[in-house]
């Protein structure tokens, strides 16, 4: 070990400087009353910046705690500055050397406590438990004296190394120590207890708390494990000592070891652990690795719980101010506001729009606009709808699959996919954005609000392009289930009725000779006793309302459909209410190529009650 001078900094070595490690690591703490913390922070930060130091200095009204590394002269300057603070002349410093800088940056922070604990009445400035010198602890261990060694560090630190026979408190963070200490066995309260930690600072609070809890004889290891290793070597100590920097652990000579730490679970990793297949730096290690299928299932369950939480209560059931954009097309350039709104053929009447303008709920860049002001092409208004409460919907969205590119869910019904009409927050897209933020999942296709089943979404635009291309090219296989009124004449049949490019005023698509080409193949699964049939639909194209229109045109309207009615009639509604019987159309299965791997994937949504066979 290097010799120590009166400052605690190692004396110059007789060996050539080129043979010495380049970086000096210092650790020190002092429980002392400090004042004017912002000014002190600035002074220490300036000293560290000028000296090229890195690490962390914590300041509090209760004292200072520092872990800093850099060139020897810079660390000595910092220590001299700290020792000039009131009551800090006897600041003790622990020193070790390393070949590389173990810290990424320099932080000087003001905290409520320099070591998080959160227990009133524990103040090391006023009282600490008796200190036990490292040499005394070694003597006690050599002679086999009856006492209990208590490791107050976190479990991942204990895993790297601890004293032989020591009991671990069993915590993940020191703030959990008070609760864990209260659960220690009653017999331990009646025997001598020696607490220890890395450098001694945690014991300054842990040991007095044990006394407060009724422990009869409590000591704290002076200087912690680091001082014990410095003075006594590895006698009675098994393993290495964890430190909170890039060195991870030190051996008995206070030298950096080959041990690493897992970024994911914080476990310490031996050289053998680092060679294991399960070790992926920054991602996993043998202690936390889970097979891909297990990881995927855990993620699915977590997303499922988040979806349920987001929809309880329904996000649109709590009144809020809803803002809907309205843009001025070229054909309305120069119109008065009210004439422009009437020309847009919204579901609101001219008089209703006049009332909205008079109430100040039509906004131009945040300011109300009157009904007679002229508008410009491209101008964008916001229609404010105060205290909006949306109709209830079915919100039992089920997670089917997720990876880095895709999200696949089973959509319940009725549930609109996108904001429209009376719906904004009570939509699939809004709920998914809350759960997957900051991502904005992009649907690869769409289902009607009243249609349940598989929906594929992309996590980003790059993935979205090839997925949309598959759907547009008809390369995606889609299988729907439908319960229809009546009995098809054949077990297998098709429809090629073209679908009108534009909807009716009620938003319904009808057949049109000059419309968009469309084809759906059908297969009868069951003819039921109630004059209905269960059929399987295979849409070969993806036109809006295609399956519903084709079955209706064949005289086989879907049960519960509010738009395509029996007897060749058309209804005037789109979205069903939550209390009405369901529309019996379900996107049962989708088969597609993965946009990244090219693997063929099949996603299935379980059959709804109306589609289950006895």
Overview of this protein structure:
The radius of gyration is 36 Å and the shape is elongated. β27 (520-527) and β28 form a beta hairpin. α1 runs antiparallel to α2 (72-83) and α9 crosses α12 (428-436). It is 22% helix and 24% strand. Mean pLDDT is 93; it is low at 1-20. It folds into five domains: 17-110, Alpha-Beta Plaits (2-Layer Sandwich); 131-257, Rhodanese-like domain (Oxidized Rhodanese, domain 1, 3-Layer(aba) Sandwich); 319-388, RNA-binding S4 domain (Structural Genomics Hypothetical 15.5 Kd Protein In mrcA-pckA Intergenic Region, Chain A); 398-469, Pseudouridine synthase (2-Layer Sandwich); 474-611, 2-Layer Sandwich (Pseudouridine synthase). Strands 21, 22, 23, 24, 25, 26, 27, 28, 29 and 30 form a ten-stranded mixed β-sheet that branches. Strands 4-1-3-2-5 form a five-stranded mixed β-sheet, covered by helices on one side. Strands 6-11-10-7-9 form a five-stranded parallel β-sheet. The termini are far apart. The chain contains 14 helices and 30 strands. The protein is α+β, with helices and mostly antiparallel strands. The longest helix is centred in the middle third of the chain and has 19 residues, at 292-310.
């Amino acid at each position: 070990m290097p010799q120590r001078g009166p400052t605690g900094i190692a004396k110059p070595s007789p060996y050539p400087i080129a043979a010495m490690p380049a970086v000096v690591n210092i650790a020190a703490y002092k429980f002392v009353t400090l004042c004017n913390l912002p000014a002190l922070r600035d002074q220490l930060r300036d000293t560290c910046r000028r000296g090229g130091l890195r690490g962390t200095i914590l300041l509090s009204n209760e004292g200072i705690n520092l872990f800093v590394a850099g060139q020897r002269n810079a660390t000595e300057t910092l220590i001299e500055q700290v020792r000039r603070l009131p009551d800090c002349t006897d600041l003790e410093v622990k020193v070790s050397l390393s070949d590389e800088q173990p810290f990424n940056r320099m932080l000087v922070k003001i905290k409520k406590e320099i070591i998080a604990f959160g227990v009133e009445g524990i103040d090391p400035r006023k009282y600490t438990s008796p200190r036990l010198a490292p040499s005394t602890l070694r003597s006690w261990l050599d002679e086999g004296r009856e006492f209990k060694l208590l490791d107050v560090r976190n479990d991942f630190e204990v895993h790297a190394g601890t004293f032989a026979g020591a009991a671990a408190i069993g915590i993940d963070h020191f703030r959990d120590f008070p609760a864990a200490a209260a659960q220690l066995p009653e017999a331990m309260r009646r025997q001598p207890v020696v607490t220890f930690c890395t450098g001694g600072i945690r014991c300054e609070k842990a040991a007095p708390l044990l006394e407060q809890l009724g422990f009869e004889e409590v000591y704290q290891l002076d200087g912690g494990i680091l001082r014990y290793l410095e003075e006594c070597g590895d006698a009675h100590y098994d393993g290495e000592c964890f430190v909170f920097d890039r060195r991870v652990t030190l051996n008995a000579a206070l030298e950096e070891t080959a041990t690493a730490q897992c970024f994911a679970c914080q476990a310490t990793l031996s050289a053998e652990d680092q060679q294991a297949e399960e070790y992926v730096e920054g991602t996993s290690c043998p202690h936390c690795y889970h097979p891909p299928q297990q990881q995927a299932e855990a993620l699915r369950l977590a997303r499922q719980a988040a979806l349920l939480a987001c929809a309880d209560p329904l996000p649109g059931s709590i009144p809020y101010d809803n803002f809907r954009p309205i843009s001025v097309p070229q054909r309305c350039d120069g119109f008065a506001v009210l004439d422009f709104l009437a020309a847009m053929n919204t579901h609101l009447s001219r008089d209703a729009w006049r009332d909205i303008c008079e109430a100040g709920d039509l906004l131009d860049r945040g300011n109300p606009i009157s009904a007679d002001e002229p508008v410009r092409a491209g101008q964008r208004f916001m229609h404010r709808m105060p205290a909006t409460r949306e109709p209830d919907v079915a919100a039992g969205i089920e997670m089917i699959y997720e990876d880095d590119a895709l999200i696949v869910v089973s959509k319940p019904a009725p549930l609109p996919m996108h904001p429209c009409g009376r719906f904004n927050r009570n939509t699939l897209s809004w709920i998914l954005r809350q759960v997957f933020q900051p991502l904005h999942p992009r649907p690869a296709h769409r289902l009607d609000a009243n249609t349940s089943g598989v929906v594929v979404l992309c996590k980003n635009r790059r993935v979205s392009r090839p997925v949309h291309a598959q759907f547009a090219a008809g390369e995606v296989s889609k299988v729907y289930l439908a319960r229809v009124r009546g009995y098809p004449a054949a077990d297998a049949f098709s429809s090629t009725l073209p679908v009108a490019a534009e909807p009716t005023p009620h938003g319904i698509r009808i057949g049109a000779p000059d419309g968009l080409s469309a084809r759906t193949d059908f297969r009868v699964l069951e003819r039921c006793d109630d004059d209905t049939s269960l059929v399987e639909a295979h849409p070969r194209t993806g036109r809006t309302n295609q399956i519903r229109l084709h079955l209706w045109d064949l005289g086989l309207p879907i049960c519960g459909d509010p738009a395509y009615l029996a007897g060749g009639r058309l209804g005037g509604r789109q979205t069903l209410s939550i209390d009405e019987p369901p529309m019996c159309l379900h996107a049962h299965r989708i088969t597609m190529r993965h946009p990244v791997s090219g693997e063929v994937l099949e996603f299935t949504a379980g059959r709804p009650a109306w589609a289950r066979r006895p």
